[in-house]
């Protein structure tokens, strides 16, 4: 990569332009307060999904240029319109029994009732999202081939545990059963089903990608075809797992669905740009513990989502800041480790 293609202005200018344009529209729509709430939602989305960008860049760098462009074009549409608008509507449909147009009408004309209905679906969302994110974190650390460890006392034991086949699945299914026997009676079945679906989806996407990756031409240095499609779908499900909790959190800030879509959508575009920057700048190579920090942050967010099933509601600033703090510590640790190696060399 040349210095031109990795320059932050070249990568982030589109995100900045779209954010300014949406900010002007929100100013016209809701005045100064509308602009202020829009800004808060953008920051909320970026802080929630910073670790998402790190994982995205790790997967995206292995994909062919065609699939990288697809993720940054079609993927943007899916992230903004499908995940942050349509998916919550489908969830409300399933939990309330209303039709599609009824829910759309509710979202546009009675956002308070729409937000309340979405909040009622929170246990299902938290069980699915928490399980899926925990599967990502546990699968990363319980890998016997992993030879670089950040929190070595913990990670070395987890890596050794990865030598036991199906242990990850056993842990998550055991967690699903514990949730079933300990959550409120009204949510037992939905939480159990959502947890199992989250586990199966992660396993399915992993198997799908591995199956086609092994059948890809050995001369290909980047993932193409169905192997790349599997990675693409993995990234979209990961984005959905992060964003749904953010959508629910957004209703604690405002009930204006237009503001929520604009704020979270602009934030999603910034996360995509951040993904590109991390990929092109080779940050994962420069900071050896950055990926570790991102997976610890994802694991922590998954636990937070599951804890919410017991009516423990950490403030949004805490949940959003958690990932940033862990990743910042991982970056600092990486820099200190590099300096130590230079001194001892």
Q: Tally the helices: what do you get?
A: 14
Order of helices and strands: HHHHHHHHHHHHHH
Percentage of residues assigned to helices: over 70%
Mean pLDDT: 83
List segments where confidence is low: pLDDT < 50 over at least 5 consecutive residues: none
Gap between N and C termini, in Å?
Answer: 28 Å
What's the story with the biggest beta sheet? none
Q: Structural class given helices, strands, pairing?
A: mainly alpha
Number of domains: 1
Which tags fit this structure?
345 residues; mainly alpha; globular
Structure commentary:
The protein has helices at residues 3-6, 8-60, 65-96, 100-109, 111-120, 122-141, 152-161, 167-182, 188-214, 225-250, 257-281, 283-286, 290-307, 316-344. The protein is an all-alpha fold and 345 residues long. Helix content is 82%, strand content 0%. It is built from 14 helices and no strands. It has one domain. It is globular.
Summary of the model, kept short:
Helix content is 82%, strand content 0%. With 345 residues, the chain is mostly helical.
Write the SSE topology.
Elements: H1 3-6, H2 8-60, H3 65-96, H4 100-109, H5 111-120, H6 122-141, H7 152-161, H8 167-182, H9 188-214, H10 225-250, H11 257-281, H12 283-286, H13 290-307, H14 316-344
């Amino acid at each position: 990569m040349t210095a031109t293609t990795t320059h932050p202005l070249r990568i982030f200018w589109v995100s900045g332009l779209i954010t300014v344009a949406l900010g002007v529209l929100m100013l016209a729509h809701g005045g100064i307060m509308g602009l202020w709430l829009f800004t808060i939602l953008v920051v909320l989305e970026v802080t929630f999904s910073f670790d998402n960008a790190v994982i995205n860049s790790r997967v995206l760098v292995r994909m062919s240029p065609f699939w990288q462009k697809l993720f940054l074009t079609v993927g943007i549409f899916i992230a903004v319109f499908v995940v942050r608008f349509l998916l919550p509507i489908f969830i409300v449909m399933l939990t309330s029994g209303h039709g599609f147009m009824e829910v759309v009408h509710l979202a546009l004309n009675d956002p308070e009732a729409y937000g309340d209905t979405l909040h009622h679906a929170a246990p299902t969302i938290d069980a699915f999202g928490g399980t899926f994110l925990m599967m990502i974190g546990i699968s990363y650390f319980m890998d016997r081939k992993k030879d670089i460890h950040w929190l070595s006392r913990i990670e070395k034991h987890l890596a050794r545990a990865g030598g036991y086949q199906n242990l990850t699945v056993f842990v998550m299914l055991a967690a699903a059963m514990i949730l079933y026997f300990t959550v409120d009676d009204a949510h037992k079945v939905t939480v159990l089903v959502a947890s199992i679906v989250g586990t199966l989806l992660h396993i399915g996407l992993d198997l799908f990608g591995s199956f086609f990756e092994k059948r890809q031409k050995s001369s290909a240095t980047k993932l193409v075809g169905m192997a790349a499609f599997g990675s693409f779908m993995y990234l979209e499900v990961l984005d959905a797992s992060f964003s749904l909790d953010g959508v629910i959190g957004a209703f604690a800030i405002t009930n204006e669905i237009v503001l929520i879509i604009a704020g979270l959508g602009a934030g999603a575009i910034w996360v995509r740009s951040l993904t590109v920057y991390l990929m092109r700048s080779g940050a994962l190579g420069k900071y050896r513990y950055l990926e570790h920090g991102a997976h610890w942050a994802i694991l922590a967010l998954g636990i937070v989502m599951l804890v919410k099933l017991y009516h423990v509601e950490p403030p949004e600033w805490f949940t959003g800041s958690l990932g940033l703090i862990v990743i910042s510590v991982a970056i600092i640790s990486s820099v200190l480790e590099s300096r130590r190696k230079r001194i001892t060399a």
